[in-house]
Amino acid sequence: MKIAVVIPCYKVRNHVLQVLEAVPEVVKRVYAVDDCCPDRSGDFIEANCRDARVRVLRNPVNLGVGGAVITGYRAAIKDGMDIVIKVDGDGQMDPRLVPYFARPIIQGRADYTKGNRFYRHESLRDMPKVRLIGNAMLSFLTKLSCGYWNLMDPTNGYTAIHTQVLQELPLDKLETRYFFETDMLFRLNTVRAVVRDIPMDAVYADEVSGLNVRKVLPEFARKHLSRLGRRYVYNYWLRDFNIGSLYSLMGSLLIASGSLFGLAHWLSSIIQQTPATSGTVMLASLPILVGTQLLIAFLHNDISSTPQEPLHLQLTPHPTRP
Fold it and tell me: Is the pLDDT at 72 greater than 90, yes or no?
């Protein structure tokens, strides 16, 4: 298979040449995307890199890391590449791992692979505690909103994807900034693509993150909730109606009815200053207990329905789209 690497370039002049030099020979094409970089990374690469595989692409305006990756994706599809691997240009991702990310796709075991810095305990020693806790919380939220319960480290940007699967995704609708990796997982789940983690070590250089946690936290919460609702409606009511649909519907109705019944009688007992009978308490609590069990059953069903059959093995090739 023809493998391409996409490297978003924005203020990475201190590391990008070393990253380009480390790209293994198995890679046929390297797309260095100058995302309207104030340091003119594209010009710097063209002036100092002699690797014939490297092609500089330029975005006229800054689109964020996701927008830069999408520019590389489109070029790889146009050039007929089979697998596209995204590697950051700041030195945090070892390009020598490229064959390991491509291998599950080549072997027909995955459509999309991503790095996982949580796999080995030793690799977590150098990870700042704030990142560790935040990443663990984001991992759980992503499991809920995207449906890939077998994954960790959702914000890891070291990824590989088969271009046939890539062409099934609405590239013009993908998030282009910090939510890009999570939105990719959400879109992949809607087409039932198989995603697998690749163990890797955490590497931290002298890069400065532009992520403002206080600013993006409400935005991330809203977007996760939006993806959760859309995935639920699409997978359990539009695409299919199964036992999980019934579990979720009946569980929600029972919890809502039990809560409303209990609240109404609790307010009534306060107003009338008479304690509620044991029968009334049971009538309120029993639907809540049964409803909770049904929602747990729905969660178990959702976990067991994680995609297992690679999508690119089922697709028939179609004409290349720009």
Answer: yes
